Amino acid sequence: MFIAYDESKKRVDINDADKSKQYYCPICGEKLIIKAKDSLAVKRHFAHKKGAECLDTWQHDMSEWHYNWQCLFPEECREVVVEKFGVKHRADVLINKFVVELQHSPITAAEIMERNNFYLACGYTVIWVFDSQNKVKSGYTTYKTVNPFLTTLEWKRARREFHIPTLNGVCVFIEYKTDVPANPQQEEDILLFLKKFEPKSIDPWDTNPFYIKRENLLKTLGIGADDVLSINDIFMAHKKYINQTTREPIYIKRKLQTRRRFRF
Ligand SMILES: [Zn+2]
């Protein structure tokens, strides 16, 4: 975990933690140690001592990517303890009835389902963001970066964790880098909003010519500047773009009907 309690039950971020002080698990109250390993795959984090049995048995992703994402949200929204039926878990982010689960390291389909079922039972919408950098390829070409609007997308290796039914109230995004249209020398992080969990293919909602970025998801969840578009705004802008650029009304109608099913 990246946030623990100090002696006075005050929340402390790992970057503000002092090795000479004692910290405690917000779920079970046990003493924690600071794991000092610091790399891209595993950032410095709080951990239980070996053999400790925490009430929260889920494996939490402790990557630098995860930490950076978590820090985009207000402090009080990060690693929030959620309790239901006497069971306690730590949501990576809890904001305005949305639980955001951020996943860089491997996870099983069973654990994804368990988290979905728990948070749905608590009345939350679950949003998954998977770090898919270097895991996505083009179905046709071998370009280094993959533009979702120019090609079909595939996983480089089938994702076993994606072999689960799509549920109401669960949204899945994958994040990877692609070229900046105005400057092909540069890359940027984009999010694809998937239609469903598919182990072999990647089938995102079309937002051409607009990319969904981190700021757009944040705006959708209720944080962000006035001039930033929410994902709904992007879908509306995409709809307008399609209306202006195609003359096939039947096709448009079908597309719009599909679009309407997805609203935050
Ligand atoms: Zn614990």
Walk me through what this model shows:
With 264 residues, the protein is of the alpha+beta class. It has one domain (64-260). Helices cover 20% and strands 29% of the residues. The protein is built from five helices and 14 strands. The strands form four sheets. Strands 6-7-8-9-12-13 form a six-stranded mixed sheet. Helix 4 (231-245) packs antiparallel against helix 5. The longest helix is centred in the last third of the chain and has 15 residues, at 231-245. The radius of gyration is 20 Å and the shape is globular. Residues 249-262 have low confidence and may be disordered. Bound molecules: zinc ion. The site of zinc ion has 7 residues, from loops.
